[in-house]
Queue: 2 jobs
Job 1
Amino acid sequence: MSRKATALFALAAFVLFSASCTTWRTKAVYTPADYPGPNKKVLSVVKTSGEVVEFSKEAPGRVWGGAVIGATTVVQKTSVEIDGPYVSVKKRADGTIYEVTDAKGQVHTVLLVLKEEPNKLTAQVRYPVTLTVSIPLSDLRSVQIRRIDVGKTALGVVGVYLLGTAALMLFLKLPH
């Protein structure tokens, strides 16, 4: 089989396996028996207070000991003074400023302009901040955990095998 055909077959196998082997399942937590097991990967949790904490798929939270631990991104609001000259000032249709890029290239997402001068802007802005959180298992109402899906994985293996066999048979029947 040629390198191109082999690469195409390997790519198809990779796509099938990566898409079918894992799913994210939401599980309600009522009693300690419902807690996720140790070292489970967690995409999000809903706390008993109603607060939702989300983790990224690339770096999900983990169950360690009696808590879910991971890094999450939160938005902080703060007042800052942005010095000019400005590289870019973006405005909404009503003329209010929603984004300013300062001379250093830093982009500020503006919520509210507090004071505007020719070369200085005082505004309430929001910045994404990554924080490490630890949520006790007793504080969970529901949790979205990663689960290996055996049925889809088996279908993926059979599909890749059949696709590979069909491609090989087709390749062998073609005149060279």
Job 2
Amino acid sequence: MSIKFDITDECKNDLKADPLLGKCLHKNYIAPIQSGKSVAELRGRFKPSWEVRVEGSMRDLFVQQARDRNLHHYHIGYRFYKSSSDQTYPGDVSDGIVHILVTTNQQTNETVHKLIKVCPHHNPFKLPIDRLVG
């Protein structure tokens, strides 16, 4: 199965605002996948975003949208990685994350990772709900 990348214009703007985000994204996520690694082999944690532990009035809407659209997030190692004790979703964590819509075409056996937002922080309420429901 091959993985292709699609980067939204909004995500490109996120990367322009902080060039270090782009360097970390490429080094720790895009380049390893392009060289043949699976998301399970990456250093950072790759996790379904509907599995976030958030509270608040937007939680149900976000969880539904994230599950329906197969939204994930990956810790890109912004500035540095630190260990995590999550046994369900292994991998190191970082403040910087990328939000990804994952789609798979069963006929072509191709998966597309559509990068919709890159953040220099890991805050569940900064999740790109506006980029999901728009």
